[in-house]
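Box 3.1 — From sequence to structure: MFS transporter
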Amino acid sequence: MTHQPSDSISRRGMLAIIAAAIMAFVGVLIETSMNVTFPTLTQQFHVSLATVQWVTTGYLLMVSLVIVCSSYIKSRFNERHIFMAGVLFSIVGDLLCALAPSFSVLLLGRLVQAVGTGIVLPLLLNIILERAPMAKRGLFMGLGGLIVSLAPALGPTFGGIVVYFLSWRDIFWIVLPIMILGFFLGFSIDQLAPLSKPKFDWLRLILLAVVFTSLTLGFNTVSTYGWLNGRFGLSLLVMVAALWAFIAVSKKSTRMLVNIQIFKNPVFTLSLLAYVFIQFTNIGMNFILPNYAQIVDHATSLIAGLILLPGSLISGLLSPLWGRLYDNLGAKRPITTGNAIFFLAIVLFACFSLNMSPLMIMGMYFLFAIGMTISFSNTMTYALTIVGPQSEADANAIFNTLQQFGGSIGTAVASSFLASGTGATAGAVMKSGTQHAFTFVGILIFVNFIFYHYAFKLGAAKQPVKSH
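Predicted structure (token representation):
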């Protein structure tokens, strides 16, 4: 039996969750903390902004590709050993970044670090699912959602403060002791689920890497060459061909990577689409708003980072409450209410996008963050509960993979919309491009109402699965 049988959780189980939570938080925090360092890095390493962006884009891509292997890794290796390996990758990558003499070494460090995050991030949710009692699953998944949703928003604030007062290298030195603490807490992780020795599907992993990389490269061309450019079209063709090959191989393969048969469950697929739209919007907005504050309002990098802090902190700290609402009220009411608040905030941003002060951004982002956190982790909890314990590892791997990849694409698309603005000054271009971006993500979050409607309608027939 892999699930905690009683309504309580053991001390060792709680320490295991804390260890994984610490490492997941640090990994996701440093995903976005480097965004504010781009101007400094271009000058220091004498590379273009398009090249420097790979510090974040490459990181997210690598995290995505490692996470997709998590179902295999979990079934093949001891959880404590998996965790320790993830921490060691994170520490080695962190040291490479902190000491990097050149941009290529910095990028290598980020990719090594991303392997560690990709290992630990899905492990956090697997540890929660195996150790948290069913009656408190919403609460603990809310805590897990807190890590995933709060850390990317805190990243620019953390990076902005460190760069303003210290140096970009100190971002890596500051998190190093936290990683070491996580390593020692990791000794509390016990193996609960039985292990097996499946064969790994390298071919499907390579095809998936081509899908993700080509799509990311394609979107990265849009900000420079516009939406109708040959490179973007070629990237899409490569992506479609690789995706077709991936699906074809998946139907015949007996080797393990991730089970795409789970997409035949419409509740899972609809919930996943809604979840990716939320993450796409969240990361995109976390990219847009600090840039708007600096370019339009002429705020410092410190202020630009801090304007997201109140909303991120308060909404994040309330995540366990949103999990309790799920436990007490079920999935439908909290999720649809959260999506409504989220949508309202985006409408306000779109309406006021031509004239937003830092204080206005702070207030509207507070509403945005509250709505986002209510619907975000609860959407994932609902989907994982519907698919049942037998498919949880695959569902978790897919959710986490597309959560990271959605963030990567969200940044690229947001950047493209900002570049699509019109005007005589940088501020005017930013205002116009921002309005385009807000309108686009508003449409996505409105579509989520449709996804949720059908997910809950179809899920009502599957509710007995919750008794597992």
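Summary of the box: The radius of gyration is 21 Å.
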